[in-house]
Structures are given as structure tokens and as C-alpha cells.
Amino acid sequence: MASPLLLFLVLLSLSATAHSGHHNSRPRLTLDYYAKTCPKFDQIILETVTTKQMSNPTTAAATLRLFFHDCMVDGCDASVLISSSSSNKVEKDANINAALAGDAFDLITRAKNALEISCPGIVSCTDILAITTRNLVKIVGGPFYKVPLGRKDGFVSNASHAEVSLPKVNSSMDQMIEMFNAKGFTVEDLVALTGGGHTIGFSHCKEFSNRIFNFSKTSDVDPTLNPKFAERLRKMCANYQNNPTVAAFNDPLTPGVFDNMFFQNLMKGLGLLASDQILATDPRTKPIVELYARNQTVFFETFANAMEKTGTVDVKTGRHGEVRARCDRFNTK
């Protein structure tokens, strides 16, 4: 049974939507949005995604992260793809987005270029990011989920918005739950999305260096880390201050496969980031971690459902957005 407060908030949001036609929690997106206007849409996306993933296997993790970092900040509107200008420091250049990988941006550019040749001015960068993410999750072994289309690209990209809207590696569980809750996600969604984002891909040493060097006055290493794992990370990251590109896989056992190994790892002290490991110790998330570690099907179902939700966060439709000619800059009026 939903709480009275939740019902009140839902009614409030519906009433606001009715008046503004904006910030629609259930925008009118459709699965066949491009069927007539861009008949080769699916084929072009599939070819671009497959080629890129085969040549650069880290593309799937990079794109999933890019999609999440876009949707959590001012909604899914491709604002994370915009490049800075002399007058505006954009989301992409926020400190918290410094580690977003070039392969994901390159994939979106390639797909956009191919679509502009086939059906110019039709497909939004936001839809490209949403659908390529889904296809890549599937390619690396994750669940299939539906991606309705029709999102428009946003008009705003601001670095300061990213800093306050995205969880940091040292975020407390209270902060993370509150941040996800504000976007309509449950604690189960939070754990599933974190696991999905970190069962593939890697993190740079600086993101977890405080766990393996000078952790506290009594211990050099975070005691929740598996000692052998910590030793390996210390060797790997010994020179990270001089070489900031050094990184470790978020899932050291099956880093290229979308599976539930991330949760099994957490239970053995093999979580790389502090914000990951806390999931296995906080009483609100520990039972969910244990469930997903035991049951990959439940994890996949929750993740797929949470990704569908993510794709509809504060979506811009109609005149509240545009279809950019280039994904890295707004159209000039």
C-alpha cells in the first residue's frame, strides 16, 4: 500500500503536469515513434552500436554511465553531451563527470551522423543515448527492456547542476537514498542501478585511493576491503598521482559481462568504491544485495524496470525541447 505522502506527491505532480504540460512523469513516448519519419532508425542504431562495442569493449559501461549521468541531472535531455562555451561551463566539465569515457560520446556522435544522413533533423540525441544504452546492456549479457521514444533535447547544461544531482563515491547511504528517492526510485532500484552500472566498466584509482592508502590512524587500508584485493589495488595504484589514467575493474571477476557477480563480490569485500561497499553493510540495502547475489533473475527484472523509469525522468517533449543538429551544441535560434 502506497503511503499517503506518496499518493499526495503523485497527485501534486499530475496536477502540475496538467497545468504546464511540462515535467511530465509519464510523457507520451511511443515505441514506434520513428517508424514513419526514420524507417532505418533501428538498423542504423544496431549497426553503429555493434561496430563500436566490438572495437572498444568498454563502450557498454561508458554509455550506461553516460545515460545515467544525463538523466539524473535535469532529466533525460542529452544535456551531458553539450560542450562548454566561453560563457557557460557545462555538465560534462563538472568534476563529478571528469571520468565519463570518450568512447560513449564517440558512439553517440557516430550514431547521430549516420541518422542525419538517413533522416536529417528527426532523431534527438536524447533518444539515441537511451536506445544505444539498452542495446549495449543486452549485447554484454544484460536484460532487454523497452525504450519508448520521442524525447527532445534540452536547452540547459550547467556544471553546478551535475555536482548536486549525482551520488559521489563518498556519499552516505542517507544521501544516496534521498537523491534517488527525489527522482522516484526505490531502495531496490538504487541497489539494482548501482550494480548494473558497476558490474561492467572500471574506476580510476583516485576514486578509491582513500580506501587503500592512509585510510585511518589505525589502518592504512579500509578494513571492509578483502586484504588480498587491497594488496593488489595498492600495487596497481602505487603511481596513480603521477599517472591518473590507472584504473581497476569495478567487478574484478567478470568485468566484461553484465551479471550479478558485483553483488557476490560485495559480500566478499571485493567492492571497489566506498559507495558500493556500503550497500553490503547498511541494514536498508544489505538484504537486497544478498537477494541479488543469490538471484540474478530478480536483479535483472528490477534493473530493467529501473532503467525504464530512468528513461522517463523529467523528459522534454514538444516545444519544451529541440532536435539538435549536433549533439554537442544547442541549435542557434
Automatic annotation (TrEMBL):
Site for Transition state stabilizer, residues: R65
Binding site for substrate: P167
Subcellular location field: Secreted
Catalytic residues as annotated in Swiss-Prot or TrEMBL: H69
UniProt keyword annotations, A-Z: Calcium, Disulfide bond, Heme, Hydrogen peroxide, Iron, Metal-binding, Oxidoreductase, Peroxidase, Secreted, Signal
Amino-acid positions noted as binding Ca(2+) 2 in the UniProt annotation, renumbered to this chain: T199, D251, T254, D259
Any Pfam family hit: peroxidase
Chain sites annotated for binding heme b: H198
GO terms of biological process kind: hydrogen peroxide catabolic process; response to oxidative stress
SUPFAM superfamilies: Heme-dependent peroxidases
Residues of the signal peptide: 1-20
E.C. numbers: 1.11.1.7
Family (UniProt): Belongs to the peroxidase family. Classical plant (class III) peroxidase subfamily.
Residue ranges occupied by any Plant heme peroxidase family profile domain in the UniProt entry: 28-331
Protein name: Peroxidase
One Gene Ontology cellular component annotation held by this UniProt entry: extracellular region
GO MF, any single term: heme binding
Cofactor(s) of this protein: heme b; Ca(2+)
Main function: Removal of H(2)O(2), oxidation of toxic reductants, biosynthesis and degradation of lignin, suberization, auxin catabolism, response to environmental stresses such as wounding, pathogen attack and oxidative stress. These functions might be dependent on each isozyme/isoform in each plant tissue.
EC main group: oxidoreductase
Positions annotated to bind Ca(2+) 1: D70, V73, G75, D77, S79, E91
Record-annotated membrane-spanning stretches: none
Reaction equation(s) it catalyzes: 2 a phenolic donor + H2O2 = 2 a phenolic radical donor + 2 H2O
Disulphide bonds in the chain: C38-C119, C71-C76, C125-C327, C205-C237
Record text on cofactor binding: Binds 1 heme b (iron(II)-protoporphyrin IX) group per subunit. Binds 2 calcium ions per subunit.
